[in-house]
Write a sequence for this structure.
């Protein structure tokens, strides 16, 4: 069936390096994607979104890339900091709801 | 501006007991959602509402009921709690289709 999923459940990155978290989707009709960050014990927090008429969108230290040809989404975090330690979910709008992937846990190494 | 507020934050129930989780938003959002989050399972949609007086089933609706009598409130009810309903429950709201959700801080429910 169609789903939104992430390639890796866990990613470890050295503090100060860039992090790249990947996500694959299978619904070619999808036109709106979102990345969420969830810190331990908290609700998911909106990071950045992108619509299908864009290939790239930048925020503060974060960039989302969308490759519609291969149905791939990625979140890039520049100069990763300890505060970036969290679970990251990619998500996709379908009709009136958001479908979430299972998440990638980002570990920051000192 | 409080955003999305969930009450209670923690609750322990005995099997067979009932309870209601309350979600309130002050952003005048049309859409509201209830998700549950279990280890390794991500976020699964229980029920949702696209406007006052409307509700719809999500991926895992069995054992739950909801009501949206007022635009700002979305209630999730458990009529007869079961241990399988032990989870963290998140409420979220959105202005409409293709906008990001705003989430509450969650309710951690344990059914013993």
């Amino acid at each position: 069936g169609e789903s939104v999923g992430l390639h890796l459940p866990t990613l470890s990155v050295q503090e100060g390096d860039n992090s790249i978290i990947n996500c694959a989707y299978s619904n070619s009709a999808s036109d709106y994607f979102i990345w969420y960050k969830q810190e331990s014990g908290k609700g998911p927090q909106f990071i950045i979104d992108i619509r299908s008429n864009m290939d790239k969108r930048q925020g503060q230290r974060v960039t989302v890339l969308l490759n519609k040809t291969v149905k791939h989404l990625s979140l890039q975090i520049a100069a990763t900091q300890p505060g970036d330690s969290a679970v990251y979910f990619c998500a996709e709008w379908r009709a009136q709801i958001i479908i979430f992937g299972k998440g990638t846990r980002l570990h920051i190494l000192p | 501006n409080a955003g999305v507020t969930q009450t209670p934050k923690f609750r322990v129930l005995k099997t067979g007991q009932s309870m209601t989780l309350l979600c309130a938003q002050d952003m005048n959002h049309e859409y509201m959602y209830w998700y549950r989050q279990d280890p390794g399972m991500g976020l699964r949609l229980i029920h949702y509402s696209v406007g006052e007086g409307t509700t719809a089933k999500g991926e895992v609706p069995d054992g739950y009921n909801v009501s949206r009598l007022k635009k700002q409130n979305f209630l999730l009810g458990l009529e007869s709690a079961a241990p399988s309903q032990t989870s963290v429950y998140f409420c979220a709201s959105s202005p409409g289709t293709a906008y990001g959700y705003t989430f509450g801080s969650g309710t951690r429910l344990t059914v013993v």
User: Anything to note?
Assistant: The CA atoms of residues 80 and 105 of chain A lie 14 Å apart. The radius of gyration of chain A is 13 Å. The mean pLDDT of chain A is 90. The longest strand of chain A covers residues 86-94.
